[in-house]
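Journal club side-thread
Mid-discussion, someone asked how the predicted structure for our own chain would compare to the paper's figures. Pasting it here so we can look after the session.
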Amino acid sequence: MISENQNIEHKSIWKDEYLKWICGFANAEGGTLFIGVDNEGRVVGIDNHQKLLEDLPNKIRDILGIMTEVNLHTEQNKNFIEINIDTYSTPISYKGHFYYRSGSTIQDLKGPALEKLLLKKMGKKWDGVEAYGFTFNDLSSEAIEQFRKKARKSKRIPEEDIDETDENLIKSLSLISDNQLKRAAVIAFGKNPEKLITGAYVKIGFFRTDTDLLYQDEIHGSLFTQVEKTMDLLLTKYMRANISYEGLTRTETYDYPENALREALLNALIHKDYSRANPIQISVYNDWLMIWNSGDLPKGWTTETLKRKHISEPANPDIANAFFRAGYIEIWGRGTLNIVDYCKQAGLPEPLYDDQWGGLAIIFKKIKTRDKTRDKTRDKTRDKIIELIRSNTNITVKKLAEIIGITEKGIEWQISKLKSEGKIERTGSKKDGCWKIIKKS
């Protein structure tokens, strides 16, 4: 027999409560339930196989409302039953509960998980559902005007639609269903999206260590507002600008490419699972930065998928469409690839995509550069040590420390480096020996 997996379950005997397993398979990807087989996959047989062959198809149909294929098999004179369950496009319930097969377990879905299943079965996404109780008065005129300016520049929406009223513009973006604003409209353009769902904002913190938070900010409002305000804070408060001049032209470069950060932020805002009510979290450290959003990768994807060519599969397609029309993003699934390219072009390590904490994190790292000032100081110290040794081959570590003005341990460390570089050596005993310069500096 085949061992249990996501699509196979074994039961030694039949119990009516196992209808929940059939329900779970029907709501997931389908599967097979074997009756008369133990957990190890060994056929143990059943005595009432004839009765089950008659009862099970009718019971499954009457209680779950689905049809299954029920077959009898014999192995070593032992009878067992195979129930093949198809996946169904409509949600299936058992006694008012919606079960779902996940791995080798059966899950009783509730809350956001249940809504996600129901939307999936209806061919909808979270952001495409009507936001009952919200009107155009809940939308931000500033966010809509910002969209207009961006859309004119992107030329991805007809000019006549851009010049329409706010209501008609929102309609042209397919953000209305049955004369009701969609959730996407409230999230992307809303004055306060958190009236719809808790956690629809961005949180930034600067950390000295994982437990030492120095300062933080929260960015609220429409998604279009969040993008601009978050980027502004990152570039002006949370990162150092490296200033250089080309002639009279002043240029500023940041620790991480601005294009890469913007792309990563947009990716987090658009693909976030808003039903989980967690804010997007940006953690900034001295030498690395992480942007995290809740949500799952599309089925069959891994973090490696994000580093090679892939299709565009937004978690919130209506929100994604609004940002595409405004020219913020493309729709070819190139965003994660662009982030990698931007970092490479800036001479930075390839960013890390990490599927963790119920969401996706993208981690940027700096190159650990040498401190040129420290290098110059070190070289001057070593040159001074060699100069003093040349003038007095019997000079002590204590005397070197007094003259140069650093600790004896510091002198000993510098001497060890000079020895390893083959520039000096010690002859004789520690007490009566002397220094010898091997290589002139």
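Post-session note: The chain has a mean pLDDT of 90.
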